[in-house]
Amino acid sequence: MGTSPKTSAVNKYLQSWDCHNLFVVGANVFPHNSVYNPTGPVGALAYWTADAIKNKYMKNPAPLVSA
Description:
Low-confidence stretches: none
Distance between the termini: 13 Å
Mean pLDDT: 92
Largest sheet: none
């Protein structure tokens, strides 16, 4: 997860830089696991992504963040 497609696979909404209709939700978007149990942050990101899909992406299916 990051701000540039050169250094990350997904944007802040967990949307793939290469394929705008692909959202990757889970602990695999973290570059490393800094805590023992990442359930809280993973759940928060899932809600963040679902909200972005519902309120932004479904109205205009396009990249949510410009590269």
